[in-house]
């Protein structure tokens, strides 16, 4: 988990795209882009865009004749501005004051501040209150882009649990793992419904690695239809596997040092894909370095 924290911190929650979004792009209509395209342009998932509209009234897109939301170029830029405030540690509930220029909200001087919900989640985990903890996890995942939710809530909570007494921390961490993996797997399945680019993801960690799931969900929403092979020990069988060529992308995760044999096999696998179609976690990149094609 610690090894990949720096990698997550470098990722931005909103992708910078050209501002001219209404010329020949898929998902375009005469007056704007539909919610799926807005999500692709900004990195903010449709469920989050809806929450920002319904609960916080941050954006009110027009509707077409069928009732579908249409986001204008100005609204796309507003979404990016919201993400920039979130990156600086402003909670979603306080962003509207900054967008309106009211001056009622003071942005924090430093970025990556922990969300206040992290303390609420820790308390729910300590109490073994699974329903409350689940509600908090679901709300954070709904109201924040994945990378912000991970970096400013879930990673700080995991770090805090690691400092608790072993007995108490172990029980709370087990509950968090159950809740997070349930939610993250649901998010990936949801993204897979509209994704068309096949991606095979391999985790070399023991089955149920929370670090692997957090890394994987950060890749979702990029048009990748993700298939996860969890807890793989021997990956050499994939090198000559006939079905491997049906996947356009390959992602390999490890949060601990792979064996020499695994490192050799990872390098061989990376050379079967174009450089920008092979994805590796920080540990793998550090160990294999320039030998990786991706």
From TrEMBL:
Keywords: DNA-binding, Transcription, Transcription regulation. The keyword Transcription regulation applies. Residues 35-101 form the HTH merR-type domain. InterPro entries: DNA-bd_dom_put_sf, MerR-type_HTH_dom, MerR_fam. One of its GO terms (molecular function) is DNA-binding transcription factor activity. PROSITE patterns: HTH_MERR_2. This is Putative transcriptional regulator. It comes from Desulfobacter postgatei 2ac9.
């Amino acid at each position: 988990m610690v090894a990949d924290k720096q990698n997550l911190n470098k990722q931005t929650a909103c992708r910078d795209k050209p501002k001219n979004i209404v010329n020949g792009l898929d998902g375009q209509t005469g007056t704007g882009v539909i919610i799926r395209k807005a999500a692709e342009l900004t990195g903010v998932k449709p469920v989050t865009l809806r929450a920002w509209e319904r609960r916080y009234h941050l954006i009110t897109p027009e509707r077409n004749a069928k009732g579908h939301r249409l986001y204008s170029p100005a609204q796309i830029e507003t979404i990016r501005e919201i993400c920039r405030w979130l990156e600086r540690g402003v909670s979603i509930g306080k962003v509207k004051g900054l967008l309106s220029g009211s001056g009622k909200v003071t942005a924090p001087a430093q970025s990556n501040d922990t969300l206040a919900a992290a303390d609420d989640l820790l308390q729910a985990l300590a109490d073994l209150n699974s329903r409350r903890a689940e509600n908090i996890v679901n709300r954070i995942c709904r109201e924040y882009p994945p990378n912000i939710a991970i970096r400013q809530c879930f990673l700080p909570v995991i770090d805090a649990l690691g400092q608790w007494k072993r007995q108490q921390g172990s029980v709370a961490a087990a509950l968090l793992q159950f809740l997070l993996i349930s939610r993250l797997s649901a998010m990936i399945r949801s993204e897979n419904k509209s994704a068309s680019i096949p991606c095979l993801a391999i985790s070399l960690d023991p089955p149920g690695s929370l670090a692997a799931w957090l890394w994987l969900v950060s890749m979702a929403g990029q048009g990748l239809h993700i298939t996860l092979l969890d807890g793989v020990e021997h990956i050499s069988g994939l090198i000559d596997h006939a079905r491997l060529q049906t996947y356009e992308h390959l992602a390999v995760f490890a949060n601990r040092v792979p064996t020499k044999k695994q490192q050799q096999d990872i390098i061989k696998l990376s050379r079967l894909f174009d450089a920008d179609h092979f994805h590796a976690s920080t540990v793998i990149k550090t160990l294999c370095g320039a030998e990786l094609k991706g």
